[in-house]
Amino acid sequence: MKRVAVLAVSLLLLALTIPFSVQAGEAATGNPYHFGFKKSKNQQLASINEEGFKDIIQKNEAIFLGDVSRKELYLTFDNGYENGYTPKILDVLKEHKVPAIFFVTGHFVKEQPELVKRMVAEGHLIGNHSWSHPDMSQISNARLQEELAKVQTAVSSLTSQKEMHYLRPPRGIFNDRILAASKELGYTSVFWSVAYRDWEPKAQKGWKYAYDNVMGQLHPGAVILLHSVSSDNAEALGRIITAAREQGYEFKSLDQMEKRTY
């Protein structure tokens, strides 16, 4: 009888732990990647051919490059928190009549509702950067849905943008499961083909450093990642736009992207 009782208790404990084990296993499923790429030089295309995740990006129809047969550029900004430079960035975009997309976190939406309203009022898109900026490869699909829904609901309550279709995984960390799950929720994951180390406010090096880094990587169909916490980016943005246009480039909204290239 003791053996039967022990067995019954063991089975009960096992049953109680199954849901949590499944959820933990789900969160860890899929080899995590930190997005990286081979940078463009002399207007050659950026590449993810050697990164080990190209098939995952392509299968889930994430954005890396636009139409590389056209001299089109897509400006994207990550807004995790406000460091005082987003108003300047918006001023420059308005002056030059350039569309952009701002990927915002819950912190940014809560702390800067007026800037969120201004982004939409001035014709820009707002993308989802998650509510709390977690490593998405380590959270469950249910938590993913909650993270994205909270941002979308908050933005919808503030602005005329009632839908949200673009996601940038925090820190560029992702796996196959998270891209597939977000796609099922109606999101296109957006990565980048032009970027540099610009996210450290205490390591700014002047507008020319930002300008040289971005201009040195330009190529047709480029998706440009800039962080709005950077004073260098805010000061260089107008010059970048002017110089890119002088080279024959046109700035477009992600909603205008007709072709994706991998």
UniProtKB/TrEMBL annotation:
Keyword Cell inner membrane set for record: no
Enzyme Commission number(s) from the entry: 3.5.1.-
NodB homology domain location: 71-252
Alphabetical UniProt keywords: Hydrolase, Signal
PROSITE patterns from the UniProt entry: NODB
GO molecular function: hydrolase activity
Keyword Signal included in the entry's annotation: yes
Coiled coil: none
Signal peptide limits: 1-24
SUPFAM superfamilies: Glycoside hydrolase/deacetylase
Domain of life assignment: Bacteria
CDD domains per the UniProt record, alphabetical: CE4_BsPdaA_like
PANTHER family referenced in this protein's UniProt entry, alphabetically: GLYCOSYL TRANSFERASE-RELATED, PEPTIDOGLYCAN-N-ACETYLMURAMIC ACID DEACETYLASE PDAA
Protein name per Swiss-Prot or TrEMBL: Peptidoglycan-N-acetylmuramic acid deacetylase PdaA
UniProt source species: Paenibacillus konkukensis
